[in-house]
Amino acid sequence: MTFAEAEAVIDEDGHGEAEDNPDGLARVYVSPEIEGWTLVIGPWCDPCNTDRSDEVLRLCVDLSSRYGGAQAYYFGTQNDGSAWLIAEHGVVVRRYCETGRVDDGLLTLGEPLVQERAERERMGLPPVWEESARNGDAEEEWKWRAFDMADEIASALGVNPLTLTESMPVHGVGVLAETPAPAR
């Protein structure tokens, strides 16, 4: 299965259009190896989904223990936020969610990534901040900027699924896989 074919299925699933998959969590696309990474794509992997965030965190930590690194991202293509979860060698390096929900700050773990610090400095903001001090116009500006950063961080730290090209080295075959999450 090609990424384009899988993207159409996952998109349909994510909008609740699949009769046997109303919450969009029953299937993911597992890519062939792309530049040393295997991508698992679908709402099931969302690091800021309140129902799945603990499980996604545990899976990334476990995978990073085995493979050295694991990442999970959420990128809302309709301006509904971004999230990233980076784990290395069995330790969470960073989890950050900016989706406009009140509980986003509760999911934050670890220190800001180099990319976050650099962007905040570029914006004239302190590179490190307290989640409790998220008031004010400058922090509101940061929030809106962070809404669009997941794909940039994915590009900087691994492979961005939004920028896949046929010229990228690929080994293996991609598959549409069922997840252990039951359809509701």
Sum up the structure in keywords.
184 residues; alpha+beta; single chain; four-stranded antiparallel beta sheet; three-stranded antiparallel beta sheet
Topology:
Elements (H helix, E strand, L loop, with lengths): L2 H12 L12 E4 L2 E2 L5 E2 L11 H15 L1 E7 L6 E7 L2 E8 L10 E2 L3 H9 L14 H10 L3 H8 L12 E2 L3 E4 L6
Antiparallel strand pairs: 1-3, 1-9, 2-8, 4-5, 5-6, 6-7
Question: Can you characterise this structure?
Answer:
Helix content is 29%, strand content 21%. The mean pLDDT is 85. Strands 4-5-6-7 form a four-stranded antiparallel beta sheet. The longest helix is centred in the N-terminal third of the chain and has 15 residues. The chain is an alpha+beta fold and 184 residues long. It is built from five helices and nine strands; from the N terminus they run H-E-E-E-H-E-E-E-E-H-H-H-E-E.
Quick summary of this structure?
With 184 residues, the protein is an alpha+beta fold.
Task: Name the shape in a single word.
Answer: globular
Q: Assess the beta-strand content as a share of residues.
A: 15-25%
Low-confidence stretches: none
Query: What share of the residues lie within helices?
Result: 25-40%
- The average pLDDT score comes to 85
Question: What is the count of helical runs?
Answer: 5
Category from helices, strands and their pairing? alpha+beta
* Strand segment tally: 9
Task: Describe the main β-sheet briefly.
Answer: 4 strands, antiparallel
Oligomer: single chain
- What string, H for helix and E for strand, traces the elements in order? HEEEHEEEEHHHEE
Distance between the termini: 26 Å
